[in-house]
Amino acid sequence: MITDAAFIAFAVLGIVTLGATLGAVAMRDPVHCGLALALAFCGVGGFYILLGAEFLGFIQLLVYVGAVAVLIMFVILLTRRPDSGQDTNSRGFWSALAGSGVALGVFAVLAVAISRSPSIQTATPADPEASIAAIGRMLVSSHLLPLKMIGVLLTVALIGGVLGAMQEGGKLER
Amino acid sequence: MTESSPYLFLSVLLGVAVIFPLIPIALARGWSLAFTPLKPGIEKNATYECGIATTGSFRVQFKSQYYVYGIIFLIFDVEALFLIPIAVAFLDLPIGAVVATFVFMLLLFECLAWAWFKGALTWDG
């Protein structure tokens, strides 16, 4: 099933995603790190599309690249002090070593768990036809309660987020 | 190859979109390296301010009000992605599902109205 074009796309996406993720942890300027993280989100969205989960891929682009990356950039730009000179990532050798060790440990645990899981030893089933219309019909029929819960959750998240960013008395914090 | 042809077209467009702005940047950099070698100095690197010496910091702290807009945008972004599949399947939905959709959208309007009356959408200063 893997065609040459899909392999080339996988290779390009993998290089871009890995490079951007590496840049997100290794670049000196936090703004550059945030932008590299946005590029890594784009690469993950490309993987979803490549695997046939097109709706998920475009959701990844819409939410993570369009909103979460923007919020990350806002946080970086809003919280750094104008004149502190502490804009750079402090990169000590031991902290880099500890971080790499933790990352390798997590990767090893995940790799062992995935390789031993029974779901990858059985043959992959044929692609379920998860069209957007089918998702929409399921959202308002069998998954109606989760949809309403999501609505309530988002309402609470909006109220909490806005209240957290505002001072009491309705005045916005500078 | 044939089944991924729309994405092949998109990837070609993406490649062109990446390469196209890089060409003039590379041309300009090549021109400047070839004909106007860089000789930076204190005067040249100074912030241009009409001949007056710069006072204070040239960096601006962004207002945190942008962040409120960002949060509100994120919430409505997530709600929009739940509305997209419903909108695609809307024409063959039963009436109960349509009512359920409107209840979901009512929650969305409630968020908007609350943020509006709370003054989170008004920009001061």
Task: State the gist of this model.
Helices cover 72% and strands 0% of the residues of chain A.
Keywords:
heterodimer; A: 174 residues; mainly alpha; Four Helix Bundle (Hemerythrin (Met), subunit A); 2 domains; 6 helices; 72% helix; globular; B: 125 residues; 4 helices; flat
Radius of gyration of chain A: 21 Å
Strand content of chain A: under 5%
Instruction: Please tell me what the overall shape of chain A is.
Output: globular
Structural class of chain B: mainly alpha
Q: What would CATH call the homologous superfamily of the largest domain in chain A?
A: NADH-ubiquinone/plastoquinone oxidoreductase chain 6, subunit NuoJ
Number of discrete domains of chain A: 2
Task: Characterize the biggest β-sheet of chain B.
Answer: none
How many beta strands in the DSSP annotation of chain A? Answer: 0
Biggest interface and its residues per chain?
A-B, 50 and 52 residues
Strand content of chain B: under 5%
Q: Provide a count of the helices of chain A.
A: 6
CATH fold field value of the largest domain in chain A? Four Helix Bundle (Hemerythrin (Met), subunit A)
The number of distinct β-strands of chain B equals 0
Question: What does this protein look like?
Answer:
The complex is a heterodimer of chains A (174) and B (125). With 174 residues, chain A is an all-alpha fold. Chain A folds into 2 domains: 1-80, Four Helix Bundle (Hemerythrin (Met), subunit A); 127-174, no CATH class. Helix content of chain A is 72%, strand content 0%. Chain A has helices at residues 4-26, 30-50, 54-79, 93-116, 132-140, 144-165. In chain A, helix 2 runs antiparallel to helix 3. Chain A is globular. Chain B has 125 residues and is mainly alpha-helical. Chain B has a domain at 64-118. Chain B has 4 helices and no strands. Chain B is flat. The termini of chain B are far apart. The mean pLDDT of chain B is 81.
